[in-house]
Amino acid sequence: MTDSASSRPTLAYLGPIGTFTEQAVLSEPDLAEMDLQRFGSIVEVLRAVENSAVDYGFAAIENMIEGAVNATIDTLAFDLDLLIQREVVMNVNLNLLVQPGVAIDDIEHVRSIPVAYAQCRRYLADNLSKAAIEATNSTADAARELSESGRTDTAAIAPRRSAEVYGLEILAADIEDHSENQTRFVLVSRDGITPATGHDKTSIVIYQRADEPGSLVAILSEFAARNINLTKLESRPTRRGLGDYCFLIDCEGHIADQLVGDALRNIQMKHGRVKFLGSYPSAYGTAEEQKSNRAGIAEGDDWLADLRSQIR
Asked: Of 113, 116, 194, 259, which cross-links 226 as Cys (Cβ 3.0–4.6 Å)?
């Protein structure tokens, strides 16, 4: 925590030096000026915020190839009560790093964070099908451990920056399965909802009251009836039993918007418990596109207002 108003806010992120998370933090000038503190895992980052050890946490939450970063999603959904303040989207390129002079035929082990090597399945199947795939806490951690070990039978999947920091060679560059690869990161804090900007996103988790036919349709109809666009819908096991799932939803708009507020209120009243994860500026689309999606609702409001004005 900060000791005084003049102190810099503290921000936790996934280390060590050279992670994609660090690159994303440094891409935001105001975040880069904070007192940056590295932690060994995403869960540690988020718990540091919950425990008031830091003011903010910054973590990857989604990759366009692999999907959700479960460590972040599950910790926010089930374990901690934190609020998303911002999202940052960054292009990601993955590289196969080795000790100088190592050839691909020498590699018997490939190490990285699971969400990273999952983005390189095709390359690994085509070029390193016999190598053992091993998990680390971060991409940079894989590079750091490889550098310190001196092993010539192991490769790390990591950013180009990690090769520079830890004195490794890039044996193969841009090995992800798709040429366009982006990761979404979120900034979280203990409290406070970011003010509406007109171009926002709201994230929630919905725990159904009853798993019965039509329950998901009923939830989604609350958004459809109000022309609220969903940008993400994902189910996650609730950990209460096999077949028991909750729904993670991102939608356009802010909790301060009447339509979004009405939709979430109705879901809370009729369909299940809503855990609010935050309303924050959206990194996708434009404010004009969001307004266009609501055009029909605005026309309906005008029509209704005209009729009500005739009441005597």
From this structure: 259
